[in-house]
Design brief:
This protein has 259 residues and is mainly β. 10% of the residues lie in helices and 59% in strands. The protein has an eight-stranded antiparallel β-barrel. The relative contact order is 0.21.
Length: 259
């Protein structure tokens, strides 16, 4: 199963990059560009923590290539730095965050704290784009994306009693140094718990207008993850990513085409 998954991922990566070269012979206008902006991302799914997740804001940056393949049709491969994740307040298992707190056997510890999940990806997109207009152009784009995980961490903040159950009804310690309220300001690398690849679809719209020898780009984009972010679905459930991005950039015309 693992070998089949790796093979499918390789096919997707190959398709994302080989498609533009296959149609280069019939291409007309070409451009390259950069955009940056802000991403609002969230987590949704059927895990215990999913309903409590709120969105987080983070930096977004991308480099893109535009190639005309028809009168108003273009293809636009992109490579981006994208952060996905969410934040929540509530009961969370904290055993990995505080190894200094003694436990017996497989005992799990919980606390009522604020947590933030951040997943940093390099994102590859292969988009079809419909563009209308002359000096002021309107565009719509849609296509698949494939993300590869670079970094994954959970940050913990706040103060809480230590509980022995996930409902926060029973204190884990009745006496001793851990029986009172403890302060949390921790960060844990959870890369080994997160799937290396995230596949999904994205779409968006925007405008471009002439500025100098190129064009300014205003872009709004949404992504929907279709794969579970967790490696172990039995333990962590089935959660997927989603985001909305606003960005501004500039594209440099490298070939005006025959028109």
């Amino acid at each position: 199963m693992a070998e089949k998954t790796q093979l499918n991922v390789k096919k997707i990566i190959f398709s994302l990059f080989i498609f533009p070269t296959m149609i280069s012979a019939v291409a007309q206008k070409k451009a390259i560009g950069l955009r940056s902006g802000i991403t609002i991302s969230g987590i949704s799914g059927d895990s215990r923590d999913s309903p409590g997740y709120n969105s987080i804001a983070s930096f977004y940056g991308t480099a893109f290539y535009v190639q005309q393949v028809g009168n108003v049709l273009y293809i636009q491969p992109e490579i981006s730095w994208l952060t996905q994740g969410g934040q929540r307040d509530g009961i969370l298992e904290i055993s990995a965050f505080r190894p200094d707190i003694p436990v017996s056997g497989n005992q799990k510890l919980f606390a009522d704290v604020h947590s933030t999940l951040r997943l940093n990806y390099i994102n590859l997109s292969a988009l079809a784009k419909l563009e209308l207009g002359t000096r002021l152009k309107y565009f719509f784009c849609f296509g698949p994306f494939l993300s590869t995980l670079v970094r994954a961490k959970t940050d913990l903040n706040g103060s809480s009693l230590i509980y022995g159950d996930a409902d926060g009804k029973t204190q884990a310690f009745s006496t001793g140094p851990y029986s009172g309220t403890l302060k949390f300001d921790e960060s844990v690398n959870i890369h080994e718990k997160i799937s290396q690849f995230n596949f999904g679809i994205e779409g968006g719209a925007g405008i471009t207008f002439t500025a100098g020898k190129g064009r300014v780009v205003l872009d709004g984009r949404t992504t929907i993850g279709l794969t579970n972010i967790w490696k172990d679905s039995e333990t962590n459930g089935n959660d997927k990513t989603g985001s909305f991005t606003l960005s501004v950039g500039y594209q440099f015309i490298i070939n005006q085409g025959a028109n």
